[in-house]
Amino acid sequence: MQFSENLIKKIKSAQNVSVLTGAGVSAESGVPTFRDPGGIWEKFRPEELANFNAFISDPDFVWGWYQHRREIMREVTPNHGHLALAEMESLFNEFNLITQNIDNLHKRAGSKNITELHGNIERNYCLKCRTFYNDIDVSEKKVLKCEKCGGIIRPDVVWFGEMLPEKALSHAENCAKRSDLFFSIGTSAEVYPAALLPLIAKRSGAYVVEINIKPTVMSMDLDEVLTGKSGEILNLLLNKIKEIRN
Ligand code: OAD
Ligand code: ZN
Hints:
By secondary structure, the protein is of the alpha/beta class. The chain has helices at 5-13, 24-27, 40-44, 46-49, 52-57, 59-75, 80-88, 105-109, 166-178, 196-203, 230-245; strands at 16-21, 94-99, 114-116, 119-126, 153-157, 181-185, 207-212, 224-227.
């Protein structure tokens, strides 16, 4: 893949880089995406499961669904895309990774500066007293009760109809505003407010690049689109960045 002169110039001069990732970044690890054929929405209808009312009316069922997803996510490993992003962190003065993924793969790949907009499936907390329970045994198919107060324990992920964690969102917006180079990778850019971030970056003067296997609703509004698998493109991009900046 040939990178454009524009992008190469931006890589040379960039002081502040931000990246937004979505489910596509984990596709090459074997985690199903949401809106692609074969994605989670085809099989499960998460709108019905991933919401507070569903959890309250049948906690064991919703918990079981998360245990199933946790099991999948633990079995897979980070791919070249996650690893390349982790390595990029040290190649720029400031590098912020913002993710919509809950699968914990960026952390496992070694990224440090991660902002999780939609939570993390490895964290859970008691609805009543907010005590956190991480390290969950995936064979526990019934919802867990809090050891301190007996409340039921939910995954620390953002459900339909819920607000995004305020601090994470405002930090992400700030990163978008301050970055001079912004990458939107493996996201359909259809879920707000996360999908606003590339546009905020663009409006604030960043050079915004999309990496995706196919065009999205946002492609036309951005500066450049790199078409292909994120694992492959990010690996090439990492090599280019090292060549330019080392
Ligand atoms: P989607 O499933 O909506 O989009 C995945 C995107 O990844 C699509 O645009 C695909 O074309 C692209 N893609 C698939 N495989 C790829 C690959 N190997 N390389 C590059 N791109 C690839 O997932 P998200 O945009 O992450 O929120 O969805 C956003 C949010 O919707 C999720 O975080 C989730 C869901 O509601 C919550 O659960 C709160
Ligand atoms: Zn409790």
